[in-house]
Design brief:
The structure is a single chain. It is built from eight helices and nine strands. The protein is an alpha/beta fold. A seven-stranded mixed β-sheet has the order 5-4-3-6-7-9-8, sandwiched between helices. The termini are far apart.
Length: about 250
């Protein structure tokens, strides 16, 4: 038998995460070249992860390749204002803000302890002037943001990242679209649910799967957007996210 290499399967379970050495080695290799320690925001992001760990926050934030992917989406689209539902420790918000120095981020967090840690991290990253952290339940805060947009107090969003309580995936998505500019990008995290998304029986008693299925099915019927789901593997298990583009007025499938 040949010696083990990082290209051979070595899958194990660590708590709720399934870890495969191929996935983690690819993440480590690619990020070391595409976002090395010399990157201007590398220290701030590493510090954020360490503080979150030290403060006992759950390890449920987006993986680093996803954080950069979402930040690059914003840069590619020329986004001026981004929305996030589910701040946790501020890691993804810091990715967005540090990679897009002219963009503002409005981020919503329900848990006061998580919000406190996030504020510390956002301040330490030097982006507190462009990241507006709002404490409250998403379903309470989003209608108020919509009112502000309707009254001209806020600008519409060009990018939204949803990573919060999964049963409200569709509700958060719906509000995001209402507050988006045409051609905005809306991403909903964790919809693949370790491969359970397509298993109807898995939705029974599982809020993550139920919320993901409802979101995918309702987005598929939503004429305001065009969307796809991308499956991913890496340091945070086998999962994936839904990515939608808000149609321009009058646009439809050809």
């Amino acid at each position: 038998m040949p010696p083990s290499t990082t290209t051979q399967m070595n899958t194990e379970s660590r708590g709720e995460h399934e870890v495969d050495s191929r996935w983690t080695s690819i993440d480590a290799y690619t990020m070391s070249h595409l976002h090395p320690p010399s990157s201007p925001n590398h220290a701030a992001l590493a510090r954020t992860l360490q503080v979150c760990h030290d403060k006992g926050l759950p390890d449920i934030g987006c993986p680093s390749p996803h954080g950069k992917f979402f930040a690059l989406q914003c840069r590619m689209l020329g986004v001026k204002h981004a929305l996030e539902v589910g701040t946790l420790g501020g890691y993804s918000a810091i990715w967005l803000a540090t990679e897009n120095p002219t963009m503002t981020v409005t981020t919503i967090e329900f848990d006061p302890e998580h919000a406190s840690v996030a504020r510390e991290n956002i301040n330490a990253a030097g982006v507190a002037d462009r990241v507006d952290l709002i404490l409250g339940a998403g379903m309470d805060v989003l209608p108020k943001l919509h009112e502000d947009i309707q009254s001209g107090k806020r600008e519409r969003f060009g990018f939204t990242f949803v990573d919060a309580d999964k049963l409200n995936n569709w509700n958060y998505f719906d509000w995001a679209v209402k507050m988006s500019v045409p051609r905005a990008c809306v991403c909903v995290d964790n919809v693949v649910s370790k491969g359970k998304l397509a298993m109807e029986e898995a939705a029974v008693g599982n809020d993550m799967v139920r919320g993901a299925r409802e979101c995918v099915e309702r987005v598929g019927r939503d004429e305001r957007v065009d969307a796809t789901v991308l499956q991913t593997v890496g340091e945070k298990d086998y999962d994936g996210f839904l990515m939608a583009v808000v149609r321009e007025k009058g646009q439809s499938d050809e």
